[in-house]
Amino acid sequence: MKMKKIFLIVFMVITTTFLISCDFISFGNTTSASPVALSTLPETVDGTITFLNEDYFAFPAYVSDTYSIKNIDDYNNVLLDTKDTIRHSNIQIQTTLIEERYPFPWSETLKEYVVGSSSGSGFIFMEQDGYYYALTNYHVVNPLDYQAEYTIKTYGEELSEKATFVTGNEEFDLAVLRFPVGEKEDIAIIDIYERLYYRFNVGELVLAVGNPLGVVNNVTFGSFHSMEEIENVSYNVIYHDASIKEGSSGGALVDVDGNLIGINTWGIDSSDEYSFAIPNYIIYTFLVNYGVLE
Hints:
By secondary structure, the chain is of the alpha+beta class. 16% of the residues lie in helices and 35% in strands. The strands form 2 sheets. The protein has a 6-stranded antiparallel barrel. The longest helix has 18 residues, at 72-89. The chain is globular, with a radius of gyration of 20 Å.
């Protein structure tokens, strides 16, 4: 067991060098009957939150009533409800990059040319003033110094619609889009608050939703392993083993009850067992500091 642990640590050190953006069942539920301690949201100073990696270890443990379910049918019903909810919150995102230029040296009129495109995933986390707000990765919507147009598809919709870029940050690798509520009926909103500022339980079940390799609203199951340092960002990230692929970027990672744990962002191209996500407390910090949430 000791050698296995040492091997895992060495393997993690090596593989962090080869992480790629995911633009490319094991059940270990906690069964503690102890009452769940309440987390405390940090105070904002001049409208911003400051968060340090070591702050995570001061979070209380989280316990869900679902952890204590003994009847397999009841437990399966929870899983099916969670799977259905997160699929209804998932969106497909298409980013189109446009450049204006003269078609010929002698032309006097600029024309628009598509110079690139990318696709990824996102999820709805808020409805406000006639708009849905969705989170995704910044690298999914990065304009790369071009004009950018964003279109999305929500669950059950065949036609794409335009979305508006609200804010984003490359260092966080997070961005927010919004689009009109309209007359959509099959929308679900993922709860970003329930698991906020609680530690993640080693071995707890997690579900990842997204659009990997063109498979729309796909859900995979896995478990939370640990918080890890990687070279891509300055904050610690979630290491889990729910499979993610190219196109999964920006998709939600949730717990057994459908509460947000993180956003799937990186995978390792040589393995399906190593997936990495931005934790929910970093997401919340971003949303507050960039004025999306008060």
